[in-house]
Amino acid sequence: MKVKNEYVEIKVGNKTYRHQNMILNEYLYKLFKMQLDIGHDKCFINLCFLKLDTPILNVDYDSEIPKSTFDITMITSNVGEDNFLRFSERTNNSIKLNYLFNNSCEFEVNGNYYKSSEINTKYANRKITAIGFGNPSSNNIFAFLDTSNMNIVINYGEEISIVRVDTIQSDGICDGLDYPLHLVNDTARKDREDVEVSPGEFEPYYTKAQLYSVGFGNIKGFMEEEYLISNLTTTRTDNSISFNLTRNKTIGKYPSNNLYTGFYPLKDNSKYLIFKYRLYKANYQETDYYYLDEYYTMSMPNETFGDLNIKLKLERIW
Fold first, then answer.
1. What residue ranges do the domains of the chain occupy?
2. Which of 7, 245, 271, 293 could serve as a FRET partner for 64 with CA atoms 20 to 30 Å apart?
3. What is the pTM of this model?
4. 78-91: buried (b, 16+ CB within 10 Å) or exposed (e) per residue?
């Protein structure tokens, strides 16, 4: 699996600037954990942070940059099922996420809230030296863009617009669902259901996906051998999970004119390595959840046999 920032585009008045941002490990690790653990830190993005005047120095992938480092926060409502369907492009192995921060956002400065027109008046002629992205659930930002050398200045009366485009892609092909939901569990908030949690009180529950099993088969999406993740000895890092399985190659035998009576055809085995994901419903805090008897699979060609070390990993593409 791979995550890539396609670009960040900044518009101030009639000037446009475009660059790729740095995806920090803070975000990468949360994205991966989201696919495995029901209880996890949220990793959707609905905040854009602006740093003014002075640059943020010495940033690398391991940097933990507090949101308080920035001066202005732009808050968008472009999270949730309706907005996800509107602002994303989905295929059977990838999701492209489009984030928009513009004059429809709220602008927050030290606990006070402003309109776009107030910001470009209050902070006119101030230079934007860095941009960050994150959400209210995390103390640190998820992605960083150094703009200190771009000469981006807030001008009186000119609107600020920032577009961010990310692609998250799997090596497998999804079968049983339109797109690989596990890649965007928190962002999609798929299929809301209001559940009665006490007499007369309802709480929204959302459909998400969790890795359930791994197996092998001849047909995409159909496991002929299946191993539950809960029964396997796994090794985990912050952005990968791996386990060992043994596969013996079987050569297919098929009917022909000189085969004896009673012959049963035997197919080649394991043309595909298949991961299965189980759907579940959870409240926003993920303090309560329940599993559904619904699944989808991700299939990829399996060309190797013997003692296999199977690794599922999320990597960034810079």
1. 2-169, 173-317
2. 7
3. 0.89
4. bbbeebbeebbebe
